[in-house]
Automatic annotation (TrEMBL):
The keyword Lipoprotein applies. InterPro entries: FimB/Mfa2/Mfa3. Signal peptide: none annotated. Its main location: membrane. The lineage of its organism: Bacteria, Pseudomonadati, Bacteroidota, Bacteroidia, Bacteroidales. The keyword Ubl conjugation does not apply. One of its GO terms (cellular component) is cell outer membrane. Belongs to the bacteroidetes fimbrillin superfamily. FimB/Mfa2 family. This is FimB/Mfa2 family fimbrial subunit. It comes from Phocaeicola plebeius. Gene3D superfamilies: 2.60.40.2100.
Length: 312
């Protein structure tokens, strides 16, 4: 009689243990935090003006992500500022129109800040916490850098988010007309352009930019494009351009170049995701070689004269 009682007692206990084990094993891990990256600035906001002038082409809106942003770096900070995830700079290796960032399943629920940089050639421009970048450093200078950042409240039912990448720089586009045939080289100096940007699109620290262009292979259409951060204010940057005849330097090399033609310096305004279009027209009506430049700025589909032969 007592044996039967023992059997009846043990059986329910075994069933209970088996049932509880099945429940524990069937619970899936919490869904990870996922962020889908898109591209907001696929074209400059005033691209149509440059297209009308035949100076640039508009990109289609449905191209693969990597046709706009070819590399990605991201870093994730928790609410205390600790780095909890990071991907070093890497090529986008697929033709998808969006890119998915999936964070580790081990992350507990909480608030996390994701910062993403695009089109950098290396991690060198990034600051210590990678939320600030130096735009004229190696790996970012001359590159069309994109940025996106947001803080996400990671909790059950709120695991999937989207984030749009935006351009950090503008484009200085200069076209030259009427330049004498002996001119085959030019330099461009821009003073007072922002150099740093943080993940909140706050710009800081002014710098100067110098570029050079050899015309030997582009004589049919003399134009230049230079990517740079915004100006600190309206007309807050100064542009100096020099047109040079390299043959005048003789055997002394580039160090001996001197400006054959030197237009007047002008003040310009660079903006984020904006093309600043300028036209330099050399006018030498008498053919004396003592002409001057008319300098035009493209404003609202019209050329606005900034400097002419009769203006100081």
């Amino acid at each position: 009689m007592s044996k039967g009682i023992k059997i009846l007692y043990v059986l329910p206990v075994a069933v209970c243990l088996l049932w509880s084990s099945c429940i524990r094993d069937s619970i899936p891990p919490c869904p990870p935090l996922q962020v889908t990256l898109t591209v907001k600035d696929k074209n400059y906001f005033n691209i149509d003006d440059a297209v009308k002038l035949g100076l640039m082409e508009r990109k289609a809106e449905n191209l693969p992500f990597r046709d706009y942003v070819s590399t990605l770096y991201y870093i994730v900070h928790d609410a205390e500022g600790k780095v909890v995830a990071e991907q070093k700079n890497a090529l986008v290796d697929n033709d998808n129109q969006t890119q998915l960032i999936t964070l580790p399943e081990s992350l507990p629920y909480g608030k996390y800040t994701l910062t993403v940089w695009g089109n950098m050639k290396s991690d060198e421009p990034l600051g210590e916490d990678a939320t600030t970048a130096e735009m004229e450093a190696v790996g970012a200078a001359a590159n069309d850098i994109y940025l996106a950042s947001a803080t996400f409240d990671y909790r059950y039912g709120n695991e999937e988010h989207s984030l749009a990448m935006e351009r950090t720089k503008g484009n200085l586009l200069i076209k030259a007309e009427g330049i004498p045939d002996n001119i085959d080289f030019s330099t461009k100096d821009i003073q007072d352009i922002y150099n740093f940007v943080d993940n909140g699109f706050q710009y800081s620290t002014l710098t100067d930019i110098h570029t050079e262009l050899d015309w030997q292979e582009i004589r049919s259409e003399i134009k230049s494009e230079t990517l740079m951060c915004p100006s600190p204010s309206y007309e807050g940057s100064t542009l100096s351009v020099m047109f040079i005849d390299k043959s005048a330097a003789g055997s002394q090399g580039r160090a001996a170049y001197y400006p054959t033609l030197e237009p007047q310096d002008i003040n310009i305004t660079m903006g984020r995701n904006e093309i600043t279009i300028l036209k330099y027209v050399y006018v030498d009506e008498g053919g004396s070689g003592e002409g001057d430049f008319e300098i035009y700025l493209r404003v609202n589909d019209n050329w606005e004269l900034l400097h002419g032969m009769e203006l100081d």
